[in-house]
Write a structure and sequence with these properties.
The protein has ten helices and 16 strands. It has helices at residues 13-22, 24-30, 47-62, 74-83, 99-123, 170-177, 200-210, 238-246, 254-266, 282-288, and strands at 34-39, 66-71, 90-91, 94-95, 128-132, 139-143, 146-147, 155-156, 162-167, 181-185, 187-189, 195-197, 215-220, 235-236, 271-276, 295-297. It is globular. Bound molecules: adenosine-5'-diphosphate (ADP) and magnesium ion.
């Protein structure tokens, strides 16, 4: 149980029953559906939030929804790079990945971070299985050709950052048809078996599209997409997103996130939300709540 259960103990059993009963329409609506969850940011480093996240994922699985977790690991990669005396560099939200950085990315994501998440979910009563994009030949990639956002005649070399060529979701499907919860590290493989570091938002979005997921939920370290004054957009259309990218309101890590979110929304994922992973039980709040939470991305 998470650390914030104390006040719940004071809720009368009758009210608890009422609260649970109110979840029924949502459970019925989403039963048997797939939800892809991008797990990143602070929600991944705070122990109480980690525990609440794991509980939510297990809860979804137990009520018949199929959660698929895709994780990032920016802060953890940064920590190890610093210990090795390297400094992370980003261009348009993508980590510049030289061969040494690629090794670190693989150690951290496919090792420590993935296994931590698997352990957390299992401790909460689930059966998580960790995968990278290599497993089951899931994520084929090639070197990303990154054009400058403002001047497309300029190309940036970001090293071994991958662009997804195709996703074979069969391993994820096999696992989720069973009792398992797939936990995917965003690493792809190329034509010559070389590794690629792929932004986790991009992987989550593409996987959601390939699986024709009902929902894509991106947990981050901010309330959602903010305007220049720091006010939250509760929803965003494609046109507005274009404008916000052009005028620099959307920058850094929000660029691949919003691009992935929009792609998924346009490709048949019914609901795409960027939500605040710093809020305990953010997943259940979004799925079961009827208040707007975070930013919803519209397909048009
Ligand atoms: P993660 O992928 O782990 O969720 P990122 O750091 O990659 O985190 O992306 C989220 C970050 O994007 C935010 O913390 C914020 O600094 C940055 N960002 C840039 N523009 C915006 C914006 N308009 N609204 C919200 N966040 C933004
Ligand atoms: Mg990011």
């Amino acid at each position: 149980m998470s650390s914030n259960t104390a006040p719940l103990a004071q809720i009368a059993p009758r009210d608890k029953a009422e609260i649970l009963a109110q979840a029924l329409p949502y459970i019925r609506k989403y039963h048997g559906k797939t939800m892809v969850i991008k797990y990143g940011g602070n929600a991944m480093t705070d122990p109480a939030l980690q525990a609440a996240f794991a509980e939510d994922v297990v809860m979804l699985k137990l009520v018949g929804i199929n959660p698929v977790v895709v994780h990032g690991g920016g802060p953890q990669i940064e920590t190890l790079l610093q210990r090795l005396g390297k400094k992370g560099e980003f261009i348009q939200g993508m980590r510049v990945t030289d061969p040494e950085t690629m090794e670190v990315v693989e150690w951290v994501l496919a090792g420590e971070v993935q296994q931590d998440i698997v352990g957390l979910i299992n401790r909460a009563g689930g059966k998580a299985v960790g995968l990278t994009g290599r497993d089951g030949g899931m994520i084929r990639a090639r070197k990303l050709r990154m054009l400058d956002q403002k001047d497309p005649s300029v190309e940036h070399d970001v090293g071994q950052v991958g662009d997804i060529v195709s996703i074979d979701p069969s391993v994820v499907k096999a696992l989720q048809d069973d009792a398992f919860i797939p936990v995917v590290s965003p690493i792809g493989f190329g034509e010559h078996n070389e590794s690629y570091n792929i932004n986790a938002d991009v992987v989550a979005a593409k996987l959601a599209t390939t699986l024709q997921a009902e929902k894509l939920l991106m947990l981050t370290n901010i309330p959602g997409v903010l305007d220049k004054q720091g006010k939250l957009f509760t929803e965003l259309s494609m046109r507005r997103i274009d404008e916000l990218c052009q005028d620099g309101t959307i920058s850094g890590g929000m660029i691949p996130k919003i691009a992935g979110a929009l792609d998924a929304a346009k490709s048949g994922v019914n609901a795409v939300h960027i939500i605040d992973g710093r809020v305990p039980h953010a997943l259940l709040l979004e799925i079961l709540g009827d208040q707007p939470f975070g930013t919803m991305i519209r397909s048009h």
